[in-house]
TrEMBL record:
Function, as annotated: The purine nucleoside phosphorylases catalyze the phosphorolytic breakdown of the N-glycosidic bond in the beta-(deoxy)ribonucleoside molecules, with the formation of the corresponding free purine bases and pentose-1-phosphate.
Organism domain of life: Bacteria
GO cellular component: cytoplasm
Pfam families linked: PNP_UDP_1
Keywords: Glycosyltransferase, Transferase
Natural source organism: Mucilaginibacter pineti
EC number from the UniProt entry: 2.4.2.1
Entry protein name: Purine nucleoside phosphorylase
PROSITE patterns: PNP_MTAP_2 (PS01240)
Subunit structure and binding partners: Homotrimer.
Enzyme class, UniProt record, top EC level: transferase
Keyword Repeat: no
Family (UniProt): Belongs to the PNP/MTAP phosphorylase family.
Length: 271
């Protein structure tokens, strides 16, 4: 893996020159619009980057965007990878390792998720304070490369508390509803049944989604601070569960995106 990371980083640096990103951003389903706020210097298609997995979803464009956001040099993944696409966990998290080797000091992650908490409504945001991993694989299984991180990484604080508090303060100052809570990661791609939503709430979840946790595990393995935020696109706590389509999810995510963009921009400006 280490050789693949080094080869990929070498290729990317040959295309971006002396650009050195300070911040990495992973944009979730329906949340790629933040790229419009970036003063773009370079764009690389995943398909042209050696060993880089390619997003198979039509609403994930599959680009690495290099530029400046709020005065900070950033690299944004416009399109992420998911376990349900058929990739293994090492492939899904490979881009995080590459971003770390490109020089980022902090990782920002966004996603679209379903609410399990009756106090959290569609269109709200939630800063992730902790997670429950129900995905069947772990990206750290297999031989451990000591240069990448320790065999048994600590996960007592997977999400940076100072960034969470700053995000909540930014939201409050701008009249944005932003909760904090626990994210449950499942495989997907189907949405959950009523009984599954109930179970996930009982075990301590506030929202449920199909991504984020593998990337966060690897970021922690490499000593990379993380801030993650969810846009709540559907509700799984109602007495009569309503059908949800991907079109519905994308619509809610698009409507909520300006709020998420504002929070991320102000957070990154303070880095």
């Amino acid at each position: 893996m280490l050789e693949s990371i080094q080869n990929t980083v070498k290729y990317i640096k040959s295309r971006i020159g002396d650009f050195e990103p300070e911040v990495g951003i992973i944009l979730g389903t329906g949340l790629g619009g933040l790229v419009k706020e970036i003063e773009v210097e370079k764009q690389l298609m995943y398909s042209n980057i050696p060993d880089f997995p390619i997003s198979t979803l039509e609403f994930h464009s599959g680009k690495l965007i290099f530029g400046t956001l709020a005065g900070v040099k950033v690299v944004a993944m416009q399109g992420r990878l998911h376990y349900y696409e058929g990739y293994n966990m090492q492939q899904i998290t490979f881009p995080v390792r590459v971003l770390k080797y490109l020089g980022i000091k902090t990782l920002f992650v966004s996603n679209a998720s379903g609410s399990l908490n009756p106090a959290f409504k569609k269109g709200d945001l939630m800063a992730i304070t902790d997670h429950i991993n129900l995905q069947p694989q772990n990206p750290l299984i297999g031989r451990n490369e000591e240069e990448l991180g320790p065999r048994f990484p600590d996960m007592s604080q997977p999400y940076r508390r100072d960034l969470i508090e700053k995000a909540l303060n930014i939201a409050s100052a701008n009249n944005i509803t932003c909760h904090k809570g626990v994210y449950v990661a499942v495989t997907g791609p189907n949405l959950e049944t009523k009984a599954e939503y109930t179970y996930l709430r009982i075990i301590g979840g506030d929202v449920v989604g199909m991504s984020t946790v593998p990337e966060v595990i690897v970021a922690n393995h490499m000593g990379l601070p993380v801030f993650a935020i969810s846009v709540l696109t559907d509700e799984g706590f109602t007495d009569e569960l309503q059908p949800v389509s991907i079109e519905d999810i994308l619509k809610i995510a698009e409507e909520a995106e300006p709020k998420l963009t504002l929070i991320l921009k102000e957070l990154i400006a303070g880095i």
